[in-house]
From TrEMBL:
The keyword Iron-sulfur does not apply. Pfam families: ArsP_2. InterPro entries: ArsP_2 (IPR021552). It comes from the Bacteria. The chain crosses the membrane at residues 12-29, 50-72, 78-97, 104-124, 155-181, 202-224, 230-249, 261-279. This is Arsenic efflux protein. It comes from Amedibacillus hominis.
Length: 280
């Protein structure tokens, strides 16, 4: 149990600076009305999915958390958010890097996810062009009594309080999920992933939704053990958006929007995975 607790802390602690920066930026934009920063975002808006996809490639769970905050604050589009989610690979990258023989696999995963992220990002943004820079997303418990708190403590204090609340929530949920995964065991996961089946990418995509960096580690290891295909590995890593989705579930009231985002991720992962499994 102590080892499990240490593993969860190891996964959660790196997100703290990203979470704090996210809240600090959201508070600053909300209360200071930085018109210059807004103009910069408007000018680079068309490059959003490309920049988001490139940013997501960096093996760090925190970038998906940062992207969620920017989306909820209306500073990036849903296409850019999806691009970050799709290209994020977090802990799977170091696992593959540690295996020199899997260099081609590593490059393949990165390139495929980068391409899919950009295509899906622009496709979704084209379909929802009515999204404005300030989207007025209903965000849970972020700006309630903020004006009074800001007068008393300032935005740095407010951002810190929000960061700790979300961190505790993520830690508790992550611990519960890790305990369940530990109890289930890798053998059960192998059976669930339907070794050798054409629909394996769909099961891998579902496994990728587990909001824990351990999920992508297990997917990478199962690929190295030849339990899942390259297509299934890619599908699982497309839906493996780090802790971003978990934070979004806590911060965002619009559950329909979250479901739509998850469905787009899932369909992108399944289609990509099956195509790779059939032709590569």
């Amino acid at each position: 149990m102590l080892e499990l607790l240490e593993d969860v802390l190891h996964d959660a602690i790196p997100m703290l600076p990203f979470l704090y920066i996210t809240y600090l930026l959201m508070e600053y934009l909300e209360h200071k009305g930085n018109a210059h920063f807004t103009r910069i975002l408007e000018n680079t808006r068309k490059l959003g999915p490309i920049l988001g996809a490139i940013l997501g490639v960096i093996p760090q769970c925190g970038f998906s958390v940062l992207a969620v905050g920017l989306y909820l604050n209306g500073t990036i589009t849903v296409g850019t958010l999806l691009a970050v989610f799709i290209s994020t690979s977090d802990e799977a990258i170091p696992i593959l890097v540690s295996q020199p023989k899997e260099f081609n696999t590593l490059i393949g995963v990165i390139v495929v996810k980068l391409i899919v992220a950009i295509i899906v990002g622009y496709l979704v943004d084209t379909m929802v062009r009515h999204h404005q820079l300030k989207q007025n997303h209903p965000i849970k418990n972020i700006h309630a009594d903020c004006e009074k708190e800001e007068e008393e403590h300032g935005i740095f204090y407010i951002a810190f309080i929000h960061t700790m609340k979300i961190f505790v929530f993520v830690f508790v949920i992550n611990f519960i999920l890790s305990y369940i995964m530990d109890a289930i065991g890798q053998d059960t996961l192998r059976m669930f992933l339907a070794n050798g089946s054409i629909i394996q990418p769909a099961f891998a995509a579902i496994a990728g939704f587990i909001p824990n960096c351990a999920a992508s580690v297990i997917l990478a290891q199962l690929y190295l053990d030849q339990v899942i295909s390259f297509g299934s590995l890619t599908a699982g890593l497309i839906t493996s958006a780090g802790l971003g989705l978990l934070v979004m579930l806590k911060m965002y009231d619009n559950k329909k929007d979250i479901i739509r985002i998850m469905l787009i991720l899932f369909m992108s992962a399944v289609v990509t995975g099956i195509l790779l499994q059939l032709f590569f």
